[in-house]
Amino acid sequence: MVKKNEDRNLIFYIIKGDGSKTSSCNEVANEMVEFYKGLFRTPIPSSPIDIEMLKVEEVLNTDERGALVAPITIEEVKEAIFDIGDDKAPGPDGFSSAFFKKNWKVVGEDFVKGLKEFFSCGKFLKQLNHTIVALIPKTDHDPKVRDFRPIGCTNVANKTINKILTKLMEPLLPKIVSSAQGAFVGGRLISIDIFLVQELVCHTRKRSSP
Q1: 150 and 135 in contact (C-beta within 8 Å)?
Q2: 14-15 and 148-154: which strand pairing?
Q3: What pLDDT score does 207 carry?
Q4: Distance between CA 28 and CA 16 in Å, rounded?
Q5: Fewest CB within 10 A of the end CB: N or C in the chain?
Q6: How far is the C-alpha of 186 from the C-alpha of 174, rounded, in Å?
Q7: What is d(CA 70, CA 116) in angstroms, rounded to the nearest whole number?
Q8: Rounded to two decimals, what is the model's pTM?
């Protein structure tokens, strides 16, 4: 099964933009780089940002702001790391969350010290901050660059930091994020905005019809 999955994830060839097939490692790499350069650097015309719209009054009280900058505890770190699934893909260092869980008595103290240092000074060891971008094939037939789904495989330390920050921010998001925003807050659905637009369009058509 492992060998089969490895073979499936190998990129033997891709179809280039001009329709030709290439199995050259250099050409495959260049096609990947150029595709994502064009994807993320394509200028999209947009209206100027209205700075006044971004200005909001303070919505967090003193206690809430203090909780965001308070030193993290051992319990917070342990809860976050034990909340990561054992089957999650490891990062560049090769260690999964299962390793840290099963060896917590040995590595736990050093792991917590490292995360506390990050939260106190905002700096992180470069080797721990590395990420592997893996390309997952979405089709088995004549794949083009767009037929691969990129995912980022980060180290457990990074995942733990993200979980801690998420837990800190989650109860505050309803106060920070505008009530007009239909996503990023529990209980809100972006699909509601779609339904609202549909209702507005229908209502406008009814009013404008003779």
Answers
A1: yes
A2: unpaired
A3: 65
A4: 8
A5: C
A6: 8
A7: 11
A8: 0.72
